Amino acid sequence: MKKAILTILAMMTVTASVAACSGNNNKPDAATDAPANNGGATNAPVTEEVIDPFAKFDEVTEVSIGRAIDPNYKFDGSDTSEDNVYTRWLKDKYNIVVKHAWESAAGNDYQQKVSLAISSNDLPDAMVVNETQLRQMVKAGQLADLNEVYGKYASSELKAVYDSNPGLLDSVTFDGKLYALPETTLPSAPLTWIRKDWLDSLKLEAPKSLEDLGNIAKAFIDNKMGGENTVGIVGTQQGGSLSSNFLNSTDHWYNFSPLFFANDAYPGIWVKDKDGNAVYGSTTEETKKALGMMKDWYANGILDKELGIRKSTAEVVASGQTGIFFGPWWSAYNLTDSMANDPKANWRPYAAPLNEAGKFNSNQATGSNYIVVSKNAKHPEAVIKMLTLHKWGKDEEFKTLTEGKEMTSQQVPLFLILGAGDQLEYAVNNLRKFLKDEIKLEDFDNVNYGWAFEMANHAKAVKLDPVDNYDIQYFDQKTDAGFFNHIYAHLNGGSTFVDADINWVRSIATAQTKTMESRWTNLKKLEDETFLKIIMGSADLSAFDEFVAKWKDQGGDKVTEEVNELK
User: Hey, what's the torsion of the CAs at 331, 332, 338, 343, to 10 degrees?
Assistant: First the structure.
């Protein structure tokens, strides 16, 4: 599940020559569309001296890093993550040599390795960390202040990306010191993806309310739209989460977040109660109500009977066994197998279900990955330079060396996703105008929004008439197959997301507090086990009240005190 998500996260900055590839640590290399810096207000540090970010270092400059490795990734020939066409290009072209201080498998193993490096104060020159780890390192005084080297060595393109994401650099600036380079957060809210060809076959309208959605799922099951074992709403698989949370706020793929949100419940994040005090969303009456509804839906077969134990939700979608799942706007990228198995599989996204007041609720994406530099690093400027080169250093020599080769996060050290703040809106809105002949190709801002220009350049070979109908039969999947997914994802998921009137709810806490460091694993386990038991019927709804009491007693009250101090 998460492999599919993270594959797509780099999509907004992908070049025309690179297609999305799979692997939870194999994000495609990207040439970011950066909006021009027109001299407006900026959060970026200011310096009078600027050094050419594309100039070669006079001497060999070594940077040691901690590195997440995908053990299943296949390199070309004898290449490795430390020695490949990309790292050799860095060395030959720019005199930057990357050395691995340590390697670890991607995912939890990597996070544990980072935490160990922090606690032992045995740090490489640079590594990618999460927000909790960043704050730990700031508090421990382990990081270099990047203000000066950012001002001198960051390219205008890199600065423009951060300028277009207001407050992003402020979020990593403590007491006036810039302690990290943050990833830009891809906008995300969970949409309801439905087989519209099934809706049309049964003459059903698109859903608005929870009741509508439940009735549609029941109709799909009763009419065996996916065969004898049709699954109503498929979701959380083995090892997955029931909903997104404050530590993984963009995890909207194949879970049940919308069922909570439509009940005005926000499990996993910290919200304000009626008195303005912080409360953990998983302990509220709204969450209890949502669990009661989900318990009934599960008993009636509306929710997947193999919820939480199914090995692969994606296989159910690909096989045509289900017609409903929840996922972010870029979910269309992961529907390739479904469409290959059934070219008539007309997956369409909807900003639904709405709550009783008619609002479409979602938690707001928070947190990110961050590049941090040890205060003992001899060449912090090389890290700034590497980030610029990764995105904007693709000269003809680079293109020749990498032609026909993947440049993913397995080759590229210190990989970050970077994109202009309004890139999605620009791409979607202008693509729609272009297809209606309201603007011409030359009207696109190819300098600042090159990806939107690239898509438009291919759009008319992919999108068939009528251009404003986004059903699958009005797309040519074959002629320009390399761009079909991009066009389809933007016109379907992108348009629905951009047009949606979303009631955003942001978590008060976006990183772990002190007590969470020792208590959160057990508290979260208590929550997950209780919620699953309630939904699947092995525990009565009254178990929720018992959970809340235990949660508070086992450290939840102390954690809540700490979160209240953040308000």
Answer: 160
Here the tokens at position 458 are 């291919």
> How far apart, in whole angstroms, are the C-alpha atoms of residue 324 and residue 314?
12
Threshold 0.90, pTM exceeds: no
Residue type, 141: G
Asked if 293 contacts 264 with a C-beta cutoff of 8 angstroms, the reply is no
The owner of tokens 């569309």 is: 33
CA atoms of 535 and 293, how far apart (whole Å): 8
CA distances 132 to 70, 246, 271, 521, Å, are 23, 11, 19, 14
Cα angle value 331/251/454 (rounded, 5°) = 40
Residue 187's nearest CA partner among 4, 356, 328 is 328
CA distance 285 to 293: 12
Report helix, strand or coil for 219: helix
158, 161, 167, 173: CA torsion to nearest 10: -10
508 neighbors 278 (Cβ within 8 angstroms): yes
DSSP string for 166-197: TTTTGGGEETTEE--EEPPPPP---EEEEEHH
Instruction: Look up residue 400 and give its two tokens.
Output: 């020749």
Structure tokens at 11: 């999509």
Buried b (16+ CB within 10 A) or exposed e, 387-410: bbbbbbbbeeebeebbeebbbbbb
Tokens of 257: 């977040």
Residue 295 has, within 13 A of its CA and on its CB side, a CA count of 20
| Residue 318: partners with Cβ closer than 8 Å, 6 or more residues away | 337, 338, 341
Q: What is the pLDDT of residue 19?
A: 28
pLDDT score for 266:
98
CA angle 322, 262, 552 (to 5 degrees): 110
CA distances from 390 to 83, 86, 383 (A): 16, 9, 11
**385 touches 413 (CB < 8 A):** no
- Cα–Cα separations (whole angstroms), residue 529 to 242, 261, 420, 538: 11, 20, 40, 11
What is d(CA 249, CA 510) in angstroms, rounded to the nearest whole number? 9
**Cα distance between residue 455 and residue 427, in whole Å:** 8
Chain centroid, CA 79 distance in Å:
28
Structure tokens at 393: 């250093």
Regions of the chain short of the pLDDT cut 70 = 1-49, 367
Q: Which residues touch 481 (CB under 8 Å, ≥6 apart)?
A: none
Give the residue among 293, 301, 327, 303 at the shortest CA–CA distance from 194: 327
- Tallying the residues shown for the chain, one arrives at 567
Task: Name 322's bridge partners.
Answer: 231
What are the tokens at 301? Answer: 């077969």
Give the pLDDT score at 48. Answer: 52
Q: Which residue has the tokens 């990183």?
A: 511
**Amino acid identity for residue 441 in this structure:** L
Both tokens assigned to 202? 């049964």
Which of 54, 12, 2, 107 lies closest to 486 in space, CA to CA? 12
Residue type, 516: M
pLDDT in tens, 372-402: 999 999 999 999 999 999 888 888 898 899 8
pLDDT of residue 32: 35
At what angle are helices 285-299 and 543-551 packed, to 10 degrees?
140
Q: State the residue for tokens 């350049």.
A: 457
